[in-house]
Amino acid sequence: SWRTVHAYLPLVALLFNLGLLVLILLKRRRARGNSVFALFLSSMVVWSLGILGLRVSTSSQAALWWVRFAFFGTLFFPSFLLHFVLIFLGIANRRSLYASYAISLLS
Q1: What is the pTM of this model?
Q2: Among residues 21, 49, 73, 102, which one has the fewest Cβ atoms lying within 10 Å of its Cβ?
């Protein structure tokens, strides 16, 4: 239900993450690390949308669907963030990066 502030908080997060994503894609898509950060923001958008759908759902079946949708968005949070940080810091650690993506895929 939209009657409480509880429902609006994920909407704020969704709009913020979507705005950052659009900004990165329009302004500096080819800058070092921005494509990986855009993937991270995309997963945040999926997660925020899922939580928003969960909080405004009117049935338990709809809520369950939105929870699963939101969970899909969180699968790659750690991998995308690790990948971005490694690029940002200029660290070449492919082994931990591959392991991180493998764990995300197996989740």
Answers
A1: 0.88
A2: 102
Q: Looking up tokens 């913020």, which residue turns up?
A: 16
57 is written with which tokens?
């759902």
* Residue ranges in the chain whose pLDDT is less than 50: none
CB-CB contact of 78 with 106 (8 Å): no
Please check whether residue 54 is in contact with residue 83, taking contact to mean a CB–CB distance below 8 angstroms.
no
Indicate the helix (H) or strand (E) that contains 48: helix 34-56
The rounded distance, in Å, linking the Cα atoms of 40 and 44 is 6
